[in-house]
Design the sequence.
């Protein structure tokens, strides 16, 4: 389909000077060696679609689909190219002008968009999984469904935080908490750990009712209008609370929440409110104070995986390492290619299972070679991807933990 139109901010696209310094950071280019699967190549394709030199057709869309949106190219780029924003605008354009095959359409429009952003729907949708696992009937399922099931944790903990959870000591202030869709359905105990850490750190934790999906899944899959609706809803829910910060413990959601200002910058009624909201958003790891943690004295060897949306989209790499070091008593082994995507990338491991699996194996191999017994990270998607990769590799001696669980459960009683 020939669909011309100004979907790209040409100034942002022209910031790319084609130097190629990002190529060695791009996971898909490292795997395929194809320039069209690199940041530079994709920016060429985006501009060619905008100018009408290329149609929005299957081959071009394939190279854009294969992009993880990991934004490692932004970290590597000396020209400050805002690749994530170019990608979101391009995907929005593609979804408006490109027809998907039946399978991809059902997966994207029904499963990913209609289930994942709604905790109750997700909870109900996971019941057949529990039954199939209990009855050990997985072998009857088609390969794709079996592989989807393998991504799910063995133990899923649903949990809702109370509207208010008070500080353990004299309160220093009040923070809001975003529960996250996947987090509250599968990692409710991790949300509990996060709130407990904040309480021990002296913060009252407010979890406003009425909050919803952050919109990341929509933004990353080319549904910007829906992502903006999510942003408006969350801003309206949080802006009436007098909060020192709005805390998130899922890096993928955090990277969208800190960009609400950008997402709504052209909406006069919301631009200022969105910028004020985003300015308050902090990832848990950049809010907790290292000096308040006590080393646990564990002799377990621990390593750290950089979630792309924390390291590349938010530039946070030192703080989680400092927290893990403070808790472990200095025992932190650096992981080779720590900031290379594990293949999870939101819903990428569902829409692009083949590339996701290649990156999962690469990540797991690096973890095994590090000799670590614990791998810590900051995003539920990475946790699911790494946990399932470790199971597939038979590396049952290595535990993958969210940093909140690591910091809390490795705690000594007096913390
Ligand atoms: S490093 Fe930046 S300027 Fe250079 S090719 Fe990559 S995106 Fe373009
Ligand atoms: S976002 Fe990640 S996969 Fe996509 S071009 Fe950039 S580095 Fe490559």
Sequence:
């Amino acid at each position: 389909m020939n669909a011309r139109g100004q979907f790209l901010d040409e100034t942002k696209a022209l910031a790319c000077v084609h130097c190629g310094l990002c190529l060695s950071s791009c996971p898909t280019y490292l795997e395929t060696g194809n320039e069209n699967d690199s940041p530079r190549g994709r920016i060429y394709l985006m501009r060619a679609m905008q100018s009408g030199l290329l149609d929005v057709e299957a081959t071009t869309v394939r190279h854009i689909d294969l992009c993880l949106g990991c934004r490692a190219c932004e970290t590597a780029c000396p020209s400050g190219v805002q690749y994530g924003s170019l990608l979101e605008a391009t995907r929005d354009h593609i979804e408006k002008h490109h027809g998907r095959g039946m399978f991809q359409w059902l997966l994207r429009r029904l499963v990913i968009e209609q289930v994942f952003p709604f905790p109750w729907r997700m909870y109900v949708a996971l019941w057949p999984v529990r039954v199939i696992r209990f009855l050990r009937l997985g072998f009857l399922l088609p390969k794709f469904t079996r592989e989807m099931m393998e991504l799910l944790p063995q133990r899923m903990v649903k949990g809702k935080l109370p509207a208010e959870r008070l500080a353990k000591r004299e309160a220093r202030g009040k923070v809001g908490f975003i529960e996250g869709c996947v987090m509250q359905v599968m990692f409710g105990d991790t949300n509990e750990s996060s709130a407990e850490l904040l309480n021990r750190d002296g913060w009252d934790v407010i979890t406003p009712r009425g909050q919803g999906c952050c919109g990341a899944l929509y933004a990353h899959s080319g549904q910007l209008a829906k992502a903006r609706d999510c942003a408006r809803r969350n801003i309206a829910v949080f802006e009436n609370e007098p909060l020192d910060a709005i805390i998130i413990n899922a890096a993928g959601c955090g990277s969208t929440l800190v960009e609400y200002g950008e997402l709504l910058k052209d909406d006069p009624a919301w631009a200022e409110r969105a910028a004020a909201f985003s300015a308050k958003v902090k990832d848990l790891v950049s809010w907790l104070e290292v000096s308040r943690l006590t080393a646990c004295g564990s002799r377990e060897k621990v390593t750290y995986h950089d979630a792309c949306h924390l390291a590349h989209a938010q530039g946070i790499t030192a703080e989680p390492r400092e927290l893990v070091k403070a808790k472990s008593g200095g025992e932190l082994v650096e992981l080779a290619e720590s900031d290379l995507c594990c293949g999870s990338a939101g819903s990428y491991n569902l829409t692009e299972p083949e590339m996701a699996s290649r990156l999962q194996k690469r990540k797991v191999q690096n973890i095994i070679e590090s000799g670590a017994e614990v791998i810590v990270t900051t995003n539920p998607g990475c946790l699911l991807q790494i946990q399932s990769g470790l199971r597939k590799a038979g590396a049952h001696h290595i535990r993958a933990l969210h940093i909140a669980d690591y910091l809390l459960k490795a705690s000594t009683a007096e913390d």
In short: The pocket of iron/sulfur cluster (ligand 2) is lined by residues 25-28, 39, 42, 67-73, 83 (CB under 6 Å). The domain at 10-97 is CATH 1.10.1060.10 (Fumarate Reductase Iron-sulfur Protein; Chain B, domain 2).
